[in-house]
Design brief:
Elements (H helix, E strand, L loop, with lengths): L3 H8 L6 E4 L1 H18 L6 E6 L4 H8 L6 E8 L14 E3 L9 E9 L3 H11 L5 E9 L12 E5 L5 E2 L15 E3 L1
Parallel strand pairs: 2-3, 2-5, 5-6, 6-7
Antiparallel strand pairs: 1-9, 3-4, 8-9
Helix pairs in contact: 2-3
Bound molecules: inosinic acid (IMP) and magnesium ion (MG).
Length: 184
C-alpha cells in the first residue's frame, strides 16, 4: 500500500483494500476523455456541462479543463432514493439550475453508473426540455444496469462490481477527498 500514513490521515485510520485506479491512471484517462469530447463537438456551439452532485464534483472539475470548447458548468442535485424510500417513479430535482436547456448541447456528468436508476429517471426529464443534444459521460460504469434508457457515450473505466470510494465517490459522505479510487 503506497503512502499508508497519508491514506490513513485522509480516511481517519482506515486502510483501503486495494487501489483500483491510481491518480496517474485517472489523470491519463480524464485527459483522453477530454480529447474525445472536444472532437465530438465540432459545431462551435456551447456545451452545458451538468454535474450530478455530489459524486461528480472532482471528475467534472478535472474533465472541463480538458474540454477545448466553450462550456458552461452547472449542477443538478437529484433526490435520493433507495432502501427505506419508496420511489415515486420519477426523480425529483432538489436543485435544478436556472440555465436554459432548450436547443443546447447538454453533457451530463456522472461519477458512476451502478443500478442505472439515477440515469433512467434523469434522462427523460432532461430530454423533455428539448436540448439540441444530450450525452452522458461517466467516470465509472459497472455494467450491471439491465436496461439503461441511454448508455453513456464516454466511460472512463469499466468498473468492477465492488464498492468504490475516492475521487468524489463517498461511503456515508466520507472518503471523497482520496486522490485515487479504491475498493472499500
Ligand atoms: P445508480 O442509480 O445505482 O446507477 O447509482 C447512483 C449513485 O449511487 C451514483 O451516482 C453514486 O453516487 C452512488 N454509487 C453507486 N455505486 C457506488 C460505489 O461503488 N461507490 C460509491 N458510490 C456509488
Ligand atoms: Mg453517494
Amino acid at each position: 500500500m503506497p503512502r499508508t500514513a497519508e491514506v490513513r490521515a485522509r480516511t481517519g485510520g482506515l486502510d483501503v483494500r486495494k487501489i483500483t485506479y491510481s491518480e496517474e491512471q485517472i489523470d491519463q484517462r480524464v485527459r483522453e476523455m477530454g480529447k474525445e469530447i472536444t472532437a465530438a463537438y465540432q459545431d462551435g456551439g456551447e456545451i452545458l456541462v451538468l454535474g450530478l452532485l455530489k459524486g461528480s464534483f472532482i471528475f467534472l472539475a478535472d474533465l472541463v479543463r480538458h474540454i477545448e470548447r466553450p462550456v458552461q458548468v452547472d449542477f443538478l442535485v437529484a433526490s435520493s432514493y433507495g432502501s427505506g424510500t419508496v420511489s415515486s417513479g420519477d426523480v425529483k430535482l432538489v436543485y435544478d439550475p436556472d440555465a436554459k436547456m432548450e436547443g443546447r448541447h447538454l453533457l451530463l456528468v456522472e461519477d458512476i453508473v451502478d443500478s442505472g436508476n439515477t440515469m433512467n429517471r434523469l434522462i427523460p426529464l432532461l430530454q423533455e426540455r428539448g436540448p439540441k443534444s444530450l450525452e452522458i459521460v461517466a467516470l465509472l460504469h459497472k455494467h450491471i444496469a439491465p436496461n439503461l434508457v441511454k448508455e453513456p457515450r464516454w466511460v472512463g473505466f469499466d468498473a468492477p462490481q465492488e464498492f468504490l470510494i475516492g475521487y468524489g465517490l463517498d461511503h456515508s459522505e466520507k472518503y471523497r477527498n482520496l486522490p485515487f479510487i479504491a475498493s472499500l
